[in-house]
Amino acid sequence: MRMIKKRQLLNKTDILKNISAEHKESLKELTIFEEIGSTNDEAKTKLTEIENFNDSLAIFAEQQTSGRGRSGKTWESPANVNIYLSFGWYSSLKLSDLEGLSLGSGVEISNHLDPIIGESLKLKWPNDLFLSEKKTGGILVETTSNKKGTSIVIGVGLNVLMSDKVENSIDQDWTSLSIHFGKDFDRNEIAGLMLEALFHLKNNFESKGFAHYKDRFEELNTLNNKECLATSKDVSLMGLAEGITENGELIFNENGKIHQLRYGDVSIKKI
Description:
This protein is of the alpha+beta class.
């Protein structure tokens, strides 16, 4: 097990060094919690105070006590080693226009971190970040519609300095940036680049939709042409993942029968 000599805490000044002037202006709140239940829950609460479509907020935490992933699964959130970020804004887009938002988030994060970590994070449909076939992070998108518009909160967890001592509490192969690359990373720099990535997602998705991200996601998708098990509440399917549709649905070939799977109601594993 690698030992980290010093735990660098997140701080606003260093995070903002990686944010453009334009994006800083539209960022109405950036809060860092030492401990919180869920950054997504906090972002959803704070988002009610946002008035303009162009404005946004970001919530970071050193530790989450009730962190969660997709389908209500627990997200392991040890203190002072990873990035737990939620980014929120109001959009004029309809809920039906947001298909593929999670996939686009992964593309932007991979693209923005690549120059710093020296490798592209791979993406496992619909919301996981991978290095060497091991889960390194995840994305949770939560949306609602109300009289203000469409509320969008994107939560991202990324394993940065986490060591292998918590391996027994995670039910799948995983890694962190420090384990994979054998060196430490500046968490504030990583946090800032992730936030900047989500600003780019906001701007690009609002104007161009998922079409802007489809080709790049296909390049990074670890499931392409892989045998997979897809499970939902009602059924399990064995078949071949054959790419994604224009709306970000997974094209799944079950012995010649083609399914288009939506990420909201299916879990998928390579076999």
